[in-house]
Description:
By secondary structure, this protein is an alpha+beta fold. The protein has helices spanning 15-20, 24-33, 59-66, 89-94, 106-114, 120-143, 149-154, 156-166, 173-184, 195-218, 224-229, 239-252, 255-270, 272-281, 286-294, 325-328, 364-381, and strands spanning 36-40, 52-56, 72-73, 146-148, 299-304, 308-310, 313-315, 320-324, 386-387, 392-393, 402-404, 406-408.
Amino acid sequence: MPCPALPEGFDFTDPDVYRSRVPLPEFALLRRTAPVWWNAQPHGIAGFDDDGYWVVTRHQDVKEVSTKPEVFSANLNTSIIRFNAAMTREQIDVQKLIMLNMDPPEHTRVRQIVQRGFTPRSIRALEDALRQRAGHIVTQARANGSGDFVTDVACELPLQAIAELIGIPQDDRARIFDWSNKMVAYDDPELAITEEVGSNAAMELISYAMNLAAARKECPAKDIVSQLVAAEDEGNLGSDEFGFFVLLLAVAGNETTRNAITHGMHAFLTHPGQWELYKRERPATAAEEIVRWATPVVSFQRTATQDTELGGAHIKKGQRVGIFYSSANNDPEVFDHPEVFDITRDPNPHLGFGGGGPHFCLGKSLAVLEINLIFQAIADAMPDISLAGDPRRLRSAWLNGVKELQVHYG
Length: 410
Ligand code: HEM
């Protein structure tokens, strides 16, 4: 389907586009004119043996794709919409060991096991420890006077929360952080992370987690690792499955929440009325609006298992379908004035954590808790925080990432 108003060759997964911005005006154009649009690509540029993918832009269509795993598979080409072009098919297929890239019934089995670690009760159990950690992070940053909000504040709580959840010893945490950074930054030349460094980091993290699992099997402790690997029967994870689960948590739980916190801080600092309102009233609706506004995961993909229709487009079996959460979260059919950052927005049916269906974010409650705790700590300890520079964005094909945000802590 041609879309004449888009420049020739425009690609919604081009990492260079995201270096400066999320293409919201282009999404709006598609929602109005061609809500499910074929984005042609040079053969193989995304790492797949094909010439493009469908761009799904409307809220209702993103939900439809997300909730029909029998028609839209997360497994055939994984959920990641763009790999490095140099990636081999074997390397892509290895990613299928991660639950994000599984279909039922495998996915259902793994999800049933791991969600034991994410019950409302287990998340509530972390609250006091995380509140203390949030307070500590903010106090330390404040002592610096000014600095990079991303490394001083936004990175810290998500990392500590996952380490806390999994029971990773304090001394090992910096290594986990380093590995997780290396795995997602391969598109950004400034960070000088090659494909090889990225996959080595993934291997090291998996092997670290497998050793941890083996140790806990031998000598169980009161943590989620022990719970998930306790016995060698059908209802538990093997050490290798556990290794890949930790790998997923390190990316899914760190980068996303970090970027939600950074974009949230930037939104507050550029919308001072909202920051005043937050400091005064601390509305419970704020965290969800921060996630809608930030939409840290711009898109994931599925692959059609059969010929099908969606939003007026004819999708062929085997074609890739990109679900663009950033577009869905700005759909004026669903949100009044989506361009307004409104921390009292209610209802707020955003798709920042996914469009429903089997893969809906497992860590949503934890992420919302972390966002609430960190902004409460900031509002308490440094209410006069102010901007000292523009955000520097990550070059990435599917993450809305900020790698630096200079601030005065006040
Ligand atoms: C603001 C922060 C976060 C955002 C925006 C976010 C977003 C997402 C999205 C869009 C998905 C895919 C949904 C789908 O395909 O339908 C997802 C899946 C997932 N998320 Fe999150 N996430 C966040 C935080 C977390 C945290 C803190 C954790 C864990 C500690 C986590 C763990 C996961 C896991 C394990 C999956 C895969 C679930 C599955 O395949 O069944 N996420 N997340």
